[in-house]
Design goal:
The protein has about 400 residues and is of the alpha/beta class. Helices cover about 40% and strands about 15% of the residues. The chain binds pyridoxal-5'-phosphate (PLP).
């Protein structure tokens, strides 16, 4: 069941769509869908043709770095338990803040919850880009929401290109920050980086934090922390405990499969949390607070998701390699394959084959970001890839297979 194209996003988000049993999306979810939307016609610039639930189900969803397996039973049960407080404003919440604090060995005053870590990235922007002259310094490409939000509040971003091997340019970030010290509100790094999946090693992180002016707030986005499988990496939470002005962002959307339920948090020194609280806008529901507590404790399920993700990711990378396409080594639940031709039309071709894959990440416009899905979804991706690249004809066959 389709809505006519001219149905506006506002109307779509209203009751009409809901009562028709259609997919309803919050603004941030819409933004995620817009990632798919940016994949070309029929929708452009954040507007897309709404689709029925059945149509939505028919896609292999490899475009938003979600957890395709969904929450484990322990988390589902905890959320059902939390639902009984759905009629309350204040209620027992499983002690989620204390549980997070204990998990990281910090105090509750060092923890701030958000309706997804995306909300908290915005809060950091609002807090530290508090005048139009202020800028965020960060790598490019990286998770763009921080830069987009800077633009939306009329601040700016100083983007430091990735190195030739797609790693983040630590000396470049230090240099850019020092050169613009007065205007820089904070530095943003994503570790592992989205979209490349590359890590900042623990040694590099120390170099970065030691090299930046010591009062410079640094937002370290660890959304994909749980998928990392190398000893060269470590969480940067200890820097918060040391008292550095470091803000660690974590999410329950990835390893814990709660993207639709919206829960994230930051760990930061108390004085930064106090400043940030003034800008918090979202609210967190009772069910996900209980779900979050259960997720933190269900380490077995997280380990399983990590293992399955790595296995499927490496299989896909190997398969693509056998076809002649190299991927960037990734430590996330996604990877980028070099497709040797412009990505935008390829994304649309995949979409026609009912496979959603990641949006373009300029300037890496010949790389396709693929989120890890179920074995079935990855098989659909592999089939679609062969079909799309077969249609490239002789030239594609020569350079590709
Ligand atoms: C690097 C990174 N940070 C933050 C987020 C936001 O996640 P959420 O708002 O669902 O917690 C995402 C989502 O894809 C992400 O990739």
């Amino acid at each position: 069941m389709d809505f006519p194209r001219e149905v506006t996003r506002r109307r779509f988000l209203g009751g009409a769509a809901a009562t028709a049993g259609l997919l309803t999306l919050s603004p941030s979810e819409l933004a995620l869908w817009a990632q798919g939307t940016a994949q070309g016609a029929p929708a452009q610039q954040g507007q897309r043709r709404p689709m029925s639930e059945a149509e939505w189900d028919s896609f292999a969803k490899l475009s938003s770095n979600e957890n395709c397996w969904g929450p484990p039973d322990s988390v589902m049960q905890a959320m059902v338990h939390g639902l009984k407080y759905g009629n309350r404003y204040g209620y027992p919440d499983g002690n989620i803040v204390q549980e997070i604090a204990d998990h990281h060995g910090v105090k509750t005053e060092n923890v701030m919850l958000g309706a997804g870590s995306g909300e908290l990235l915005d809060v950091v922007g609002l807090t530290f880009l508090d005048s139009p002259t202020k800028k965020v310094v960060g790598s490019d490409p990286s998770y763009g929401s921080v830069y987009a939000q800077a633009t939306s509040i009329k601040a700016d971003a100083i983007k430091v290109p990735l190195l030739a091997d797609y790693r983040q340019d630590i000396p470049g970030l230090i240099k850019a920050t020092k050169a613009h010290y007065r205007e820089t509100g904070f530095v943003y790094v994503c570790n592992p980086n989205n979209p490349t999946g590359q890590i900042i090693t623990k040694r590099e992180m120390k170099t970065l934090l030691d090299g930046l002016p010591e009062d410079m707030p640094v937002l370290i986005d660890e959304a994909y922390h749980h998928f990392v499988n190398t000893d060269d990496y470590a969480t940067s939470v200890p820097y918060v405990i040391e008292g550095r002005p470091v803000i660690i962002a974590r999410t329950f959307s990835k390893i814990a499969a709660l993207a639709g339920m919206r829960l994230g948090y930051v760990i930061a020194p108390r004085e930064l949390i106090v400043k940030m609280r003034n800008y918090q806008t979202g609210t967190i529901n009772a069910a996900v607070k209980w779900g979050g507590v259960a997720a933190l404790k269900d380490t077995a399920s997280m380990a399983k998701v990590k293992a399955m993700t790595i296995d499927l990711r490496e299989k896909a990378i190997k398969d693509l390699k056998s076809l002649g396409y190299d991927s960037i080594p990734s430590e996330g639940n996604f990877f980028m394959v070099h497709i040797k031709r412009p990505v935008q039309p390829v994304i649309e071709e995949f979409r026609q084959k009912k496979v959603l894959v990641g949006r373009p990440f300029p300037p890496m416009l010949e790389h396709l970001r693929v989120s890890v899905g179920t074995a079935d979804e990855m098989a659909r991706f592999a089939t679609a890839f062969r079909e799309v690249f077969r249609t490239a004809g002789a030239a594609g066959a020569k350079s590709g297979a």
